[in-house]
Each structure stands twice: as structure tokens, then as C-alpha cells.
Amino acid sequence: MKKFFAIFLLMCGTAQADPFANGHPEAGKKAFDKYKCNSCHDGMMGGNGNAIFGRPGSKVKDPQQLSSVVVVCVRNIRANFSSQVTPQEKLDLSAYLNKNFYKFK
To answer: Would you say residue 51 lies in a domain?
Structure first.
């Protein structure tokens, strides 16, 4: 019993929280497509917009930087499409990108 309890405490102490726990990756994918995010990335990456995520020399090294980049991109969306991106959509976009590309814990 003591051994089980010690293992349980060890596991709890090393568990890490999802940095975008209140975001919904599925909704983030829908927003990513709705706002045509890869239309900008495709031009920057020679046709494969997803190559922008995790590329060598990426400025995104942690969840906070990912959130900041999403905010910058949202400003471009507003300028290009006059869209109103909600705070929840920003969180959902971050959750989607993290789940599928960055995998920050």
C-alpha cells in the first residue's frame, strides 16, 4: 500500500497541465479553415502552409509564444478579411496548433 501511495504521489507531482485546457482543438481547426490561415502560410512556405509549424528557427518555443503568434495572425486576419475573431477562437486556434504541431505540455 505504501509503495502504491508513493508511486501515486510521484505521478501526480510530475503530471503537467495542458496549456490550452480551455481551448477546443476541433473548434480551432474549424476556425483555422474558416479564416483561411494557410492562405498566408502557403505563400510564406512555398505552397505547404503547415510547414511553418515547428520549422527550424521557429520563434515559437513555448505556449506563451504560441499564443502571441496567434494574436499577431489574428490582427492580419482582421486586416485582410474584416473578421471578428473571438477570444475563445484564439484559444481554440492555439489548442488546435498545439495538439497537432507543437505539443507543448
So the answer is: yes
Q: Is 8 a member of any domain?
A: no
- Tell me, yes or no, whether 72 lies in a domain: yes
Quote the cell numbers at residue 20: 490550452
Per-residue pLDDT tens for 65-96? 999 999 999 888 766 665 688 999 999 999 99
The amino acid occupying position 88 is Q
**Number of folded domains in the chain?**
1
Nearest Cα neighbor of 60 from 14, 16, 19 is 19
**What spatial distance separates the first Cα and last Cα of the chain, rounded to whole Å?**
30
Cβ–Cβ contacts within 10 Å for residue 83, how many? 15
pLDDT of residue 9: 38
Evaluate the CA torsion angle 19, 67, 27, 44 in order and state its sign: negative
| Domain membership flag for residue 86 | yes
